[in-house]
What we know:
By secondary structure, this protein is mainly beta. Helix content is about 10%, strand content about 40%. The chain is built from three helices and 17 strands. Strands 4, 7, 10, 12, 13, 15 and 16 form a seven-stranded antiparallel sheet that branches. Strands 1, 5, 6, 11, 14 and 17 form a six-stranded antiparallel sheet that branches. A two-stranded antiparallel ribbon has the order 2-3. Strand 2 (about 30-35) and strand 3 (about 35-40) form a beta hairpin. It is globular. The protein starts with a helix and ends with a strand. Mean pLDDT is about 85; it is low at about 1-15.
Amino acid sequence: MKKLFILLSIALATQTNAQTITGGDMETWKTYTVGFSSQQRPDAWFSTDSLIGFIKSLSLKSYSQRVTKSTTVKNGGTASAMLVSADPSVDSLPTILANGNIKFNLTDILAGNFTKINYVGGTNVTKRIVFAHAYTQYTTTSADTGQMTVTAFKNGAGVGGTDSAIGSGSKLIMNSSSFVKQTCGVSYNDATMVPDRIVITFTTSRKTVPVKGTTLYVDDVTISDPIGIE
């Protein structure tokens, strides 16, 4: 009986309740204008295309969007998001897709530092999210990996009432010839604090200088919280 109770407790602890992410199926896309170019992005998602396109337009240079809609390679439905790394002979700016608005500091950009990124918004939650899931397909011409990251934010929990990251997790995305389910766990700073929003990001390359030809397809993004005993 004791063994049965322990096994039952473990089973309850590992059960999760899946939740959809707005636009996570990558089916609906919005068209907008940046500088001299027309761009698209998945509904409720953002990319570095708007920033890079704006920088290029200031120098009167053309720009090819790096996050686009794919209707030929997808996990489910009619579309996925296709992320392509930059050509390093043109620039080494990162290709990022996130469900929060991507914000860079102008001083950092001018200095060539693209590691300091802030995210506004995300998916609102009222429970502790323990996993984020996505289906990805990844190809690269070199020894590179993509990355999926999840950050849990608490509004006003930081110094001076700023938002604070109270949990995070990351998952490397490896080469695959078909779609693979990625599950990224979230580790929290304490056992009780509940986040207000979740930001999920995908990037094509973990290298400082991106690998030309690297492509990451993203589809069917969801999150899950524990039910039963955690």
